[in-house]
Amino acid sequence: MDQTNCYCIFRMDDQLFGVAVARVEKIIRAAAVTPVPDSPETLTGLLNVEGRIFPVVNLRKKWRLPERAMEIDDRIILFKTDRIIGFVVNGVEGVVQFDHLGFHQAGDIQPGLEKYIEGAGKLDHRNVIIVDLARFLNSQELGYMEKITADHG
Fold it and tell me: Mean pLDDT over residues 34-49, rounded?
């Protein structure tokens, strides 16, 4: 499958989201994350994957969703920005490729919406919001993550 318009679809509660497959480094089962003292509340902690240390962000806090404990079906998506950052999600549905008729750019839906999302598509009659997870992190959070990753790397 050509990676053009291919998205990894994941769940947060009952809502489906997608991220570009090209930005996904790896998807792993949820694992214990080491908390970092005095870190921003959106940073869950650090995760060691095959000897590499990655920061893990709490999307539930970023998106103001109700808190819940990690469950056995949860996954961590290692997402590529300037560095790799982990995000805990409720589950991964798979990979889909949207054709030009099944995908709507954010600016076409509502001008200004592209600041938050890339667009939207449909999967089995359900809306899928396509996000660039890096857009949800501010420069202070990214700087902090870079520093603690370097300190613990």
Answer: 86
| Spatial separation of the C-alpha atoms in residues 26 and 52, rounded to whole Å | 13
Query: What does R_g of the chain's alpha carbons equal in angstroms?
Result: 15
Q: Does residue 127 lie within any of the structural domains? A: yes
**Of the candidates 144, 148, 129, which has an alpha carbon nearest to the alpha carbon of residue 63?**
129
* 69: confidence class by pLDDT, cuts 50, 70, 90: confident
Q: What's the N-to-C CA distance of the chain in angstroms?
A: 35
Give me the pLDDT at residue 4, please: 66
Query: Can you give the CATH number for the domain in which 94 is found?
Result: 2.40.50.180
Expressed as residue numbers, the domain containing 15 is 6-152
Distance between CA atoms of residues 127 and 124, nearest Å: 8
Mean pLDDT of 149-153: 63
